[in-house]
Design the sequence.
């Protein structure tokens, strides 16, 4: 198992490194050339072009069945789930086969509104509580995986702290 990170706008790198080191996991940061990301013995950096979606495509292509993909992008999460990886938002929302379709539909609707000249709300500011919720959710995902669990997608029910209601990702 590896933890693959959409590092372009990741506010939880420190939490990821803490959990990965507790479990002896490798971290792979996927970032465009303009984003600072430092490699270490247990941290690998994949640099991609600054073109649109370059990091997202590289991240999705790198995902394997036993990986955890950390991203704020529903499209990347959807592609990771398609590869039988587990996916988690920066705020601790577990993306799974039960919620990804609705999240993708919401994303599509927002894009249609914006293309038509309308305005949509962006995500609320990231808080320390979001970081704590993320670390707890990542710990649960990593700790719950055993060889007999793979390659199932993570499924957390509503009301679980890992799936806050209304989280835009």
Sequence:
């Amino acid at each position: 198992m590896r933890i693959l990170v959409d590092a372009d706008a990741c506010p939880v790198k420190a939490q990821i490194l803490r959990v990965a080191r507790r479990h002896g996991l490798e971290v792979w940061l996927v970032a465009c050339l303009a984003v600072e990301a430092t490699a270490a013995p247990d941290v690998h950096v994949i640099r991609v072009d600054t073109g649109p979606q370059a990091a997202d495509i590289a991240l999705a292509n790198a995902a394997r069945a036993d990986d955890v993909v950390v991203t704020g992008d529903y499209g990347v999460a959807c592609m990771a789930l398609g590869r039988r990886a587990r996916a988690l938002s920066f705020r601790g929302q577990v993306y799974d086969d039960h919620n990804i379709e609705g999240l993708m539909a919401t994303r599509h609707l927002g894009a249609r509104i914006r293309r038509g000249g309308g305005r949509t709300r962006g995500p609320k500011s990231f808080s320390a509580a979001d970081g704590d919720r993320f670390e707890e959710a990542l710990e649960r995902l990593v700790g719950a995986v055993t060889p007999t669990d793979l390659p199932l997608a993570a499924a957390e029910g509503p009301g679980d702290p890992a799936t806050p209601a209304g989280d835009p990702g």
About this structure: Helices lie at 13-23, 54-62, 74-82, 100-115, 128-144. The two ends are 23 Å apart (CA to CA). The chain has one domain: 2-142.
